[in-house]
Design a protein that fits this description.
Blueprint lengths: L1 H18 L3 H24 L10 H16 L1 E5 L3 E5 L4 H23 L5 H20 L1 H4 L5 E2 L5 E4 L3 E4 L3 H23 L2 H11 L1 H6 L4 H27 L1 E2 L6 H14 L6 H16 L5 H18 L4 H15 L6 H7 L3
Antiparallel strand pairs: 1-2, 3-6, 4-5
Helix pairs in contact: 1-7, 2-7, 2-10, 2-11, 2-12, 3-4, 3-5, 3-10, 4-10, 7-10, 8-10, 11-12
Amino acid sequence: MKAIVTILAVAALASVPLWLRDPYLLNALITTGIFVIGAMSLNLLLGFTGQLSLGHIAFFGIGAYVSALTSLGFDVGLPGGFRLVHTPWPPIIGFVLAILIAGLCGYFVGLLSFRVRGAYFVIVTISFAEVVRLVALNWVELTQGPLALTNIPSIALPLPGVGELTLRTKLQNYYLVLVVALIAYLLIARLVHSHFGRSMRGLMENETLAVSVGIDVTRTLTIAAVISAAIAGAAGSLYAHYIRIIDPEVFAFINTVTMVIMVITGGKGSLAGPVVGGLIFGLLPVALRPVMAPEAQWIAYGGVLIAILFVLPRGIVPSLALRLAGRRRRSPAPATLTETAAKEPA
């Protein structure tokens, strides 16, 4: 049943450009899809290990800057009078490097921060994101600081025997984001349903019991952090090559909060939760913009968030799934042919 719902949802999303002709709405769907990928990566930590990272946007931003700089090239000075010169590489290589370097950063951050728990872990992740933001802001020779990196090339896919396909149009970028989101969804689904996924859930539900049966806490959480950071880096790379301009504001705390809202309202710990929550809160500002002033939009945004969590405290997807399961249990089973015949008068 879940597989059928997933296939129908993918088919519905794939059909959107066939009937949606408004480029503004298509642009909103593309940027929303990119943040949905980021929310899915955050859900891997928050929903399946119980670790709240409020610095997750750092990996998104690292992926964006790595991919952009790989594609643009750079020439920066190093201590001792040396210079580091990099000539531009194809954007697809930048996309791969964004995944690898964001994952590597996730490894080092996880290795250090998972030695603490609770509020201490949250503080470590926020501090890391702020350090990365300050580096992007102040290392002007590399990142252009507040002036931003501009003219970032679009991603081009190599076609053997033909050349390459440069993804410049909104339609092409929409399907690129959809494919990457689907791959990320399937990867996370495969992971959480594996033995490693059961270890993650065990740590979230009862860490003491999980340790007693031999689960390595730091190793499990660090691997989860690496995969989560790598997926966030992929989302950041897509963002940089689609928007084609990137500045330190990509590390803004509001972006992490947006991802957390998508995960919590959609339903943390559920695979579809970040997708549902992301579509709602990614497209809600677009729906409110024509009818409300900017100040009123934030009030309505908060009101919708509170209403959803009040009515569906577990999040949209888990709460609806529980109610549907409850209705199925309460409904009487259909009578068999034998029972029907026994009730009929002779």
